[in-house]
Design goal:
heterodimer; A: about 350 residues; mainly alpha; ABC transporter involved in vitamin B12 uptake, BtuC; globular; B: alpha/beta; Rossmann fold; 5-stranded mixed sheet; 17 strands
Chain lengths: ~350, ~350
Amino acid sequence: MQKDRLISRNFLLFGLLGLLAILLFILDIFFGSLLIPFKTILHVLTGTGDVNPEIKSIILDFRLPKAITAVIAGIALSISGLQMQTIFRNPLAGPFVLGISAGASLGVAILVLGFSSVFTLGLFTISGSWALVIVAWLGSALVLFLILAVSIRIKDILTILILGMLFGSASGALVNILQYFSNESMLKSFVIWTMGSLGSVTKSQLNVLIPSVAIGLFLSFFSIKSLDVMLLGEQYAKSMGLRVRNVRFLVFTSTSILAGSITAFCGPIGFIGIAVPHIGRLLFKTARHKILIPSSLLLGSIVMLLSDIVSQMPGYESTLPINSVTALVGIPVIIWIILKNRKFSSV
Amino acid sequence: MRNQQVNITVQNLSVGYKKGKSFVAIKEGINVNAHSGELIALIGSNGIGKSTLLRTLTGFQKALSGEILFNDRKLGSFSIKELARVLSFVSTEAIRVQNLRVWELLAMGRYPYTNLMGTLTDEDNRIIKRAIQQVGLAGYEDRMIDQISDGERQRAMIARTLVQDTPLIILDEPTAFLDIRNKYEIIHLLHDFVKTENKTVLFSTHDLNISTSEVDKIWLMLDDKVVEGAPEDLILAGNFDQMFHSNKVYFNGESGDFMLRKNVIGTYTLKGPEGKIFNWTCRALQRIGLVYTETDPLVMINIPNMEENPVWKVEINSKERLEISSLYELTAELYKRLSGL
């Protein structure tokens, strides 16, 4: 039957994407300003053979955490993008365009610039890290619920996007005002935060980032069935017995945690959240979240690892900001979506 | 829930919306009934509150006052999950989700019955397959819903309500945007489920002609009241005449449809054998504003030849005589002479 062929095609695709992700993960560790032989990297990763402790430290303390961060960021941003696209039934929704990342930045700014004494502890301790993620979650959630409040009154998808951008700009403006009124030492720690990137995430921050994203993902798995039904819109979802308010709350909480955590540690990273779910839809030709969520997990990791490899500029000393690379990867996908959906149909 | 006997009673219901802190009633004092095995059309002019009534019946919005009883149980006492097993709904909104297969859309209808992950059992699959066949979409299982015709998509949406397996199905203008053939087929499909599955199907529509020939009952929303009855009851009672306050449109109790009132330009008599040509000649003459009379007509028309190529012999004012070979020329010629152009 047709259906069985479809299932075996999906399995094959998942297998290939999985292999690609593993390959890129190793490549991401391989590329850096210092050329380390491939064999040495494998030795360090598998814990065999004798390796110079300095090289070992470069790999285990810097490159490995960065590669892991890339995977986590890719996963978290893609899943939050997918969830937003379904909930708002809008192909252009994502954590960056809806201003959710900006909300997270606002949360961090208020913490760092407003209560700087907390940060005598430093950004890099465990308690400092948890404080950072939690304010980022709250900032994200604030923007999300503001958008929700408006989207109940206004159904038009373009209006919601514009509002997201406005909320994003408003958050940015508030951050600027906060910077203006803060003293030098506060400003310094904030500027350091804004320069965050995949590589700036330390091992101890990973101890906070990994469980946070795990919680967000755990929540998103519970909404798989409901998200499918949400594709038909609120009325249909209700008529099939779905408690729309509960699902929204679940999904928004998950998205705030996922997008907020990444913004807290890596700074705002754009366009991954919008673009990756669409690549998934294109490859798997489905609207079902049972397939789209795992495909966004894999594709998110792949795209983020690829962006990180590109940002290393293999062969050069310096690195590009990751946000610019993801923009260059994501924007063509978005233009393709706009051209394809001239009628602006739903997800 | 299949074959369950259902009685829906609407008692003194007021529907409307909330504006600020006060309520605005659109329609008050609605008293209607629906039973198993009935296909019911909800008819009324635009803006009279059809959609509001349907939304209230589906539980999307609260009634301002009055009761909706479902087998003597108040609608408001159903939880959203219970309601999903009692009534299913098709809205006017066209669903344009991309990459969604017909089969997957129908599978969503099992939502109230499946587990946390939405796993379909053999029984679920059987129900979906049956619904696809019932609406005549066999072979369309793997087609994407944004790549099939409007009529096919509407069938898929209706099949989804069958999959949801509820005794009551409510549809908001299921025939809007469809061509004539699809309009008839959709209504006929609904008629079939009602009879074979003993369901209650309520739909709003503007297609009076199709409805009056297929439905068991009409809920007719008028300006001051809502009346119900068999289509023929309402026609005989003259209820449709009250639908519009217009001297341009009137309800033709003979044909069961609305007609435009014409300026009368003259009278006619038609002679010839009864049949198709005779009837359509009458229609054509009425269209341009001629009224039939037996005595002293302005225009006398004779149809002598009833073979392949009919000929109309016309005598105007007992003076001019014409022989015309198509109704187009006949109407054009008569209109030109009689309207004084």
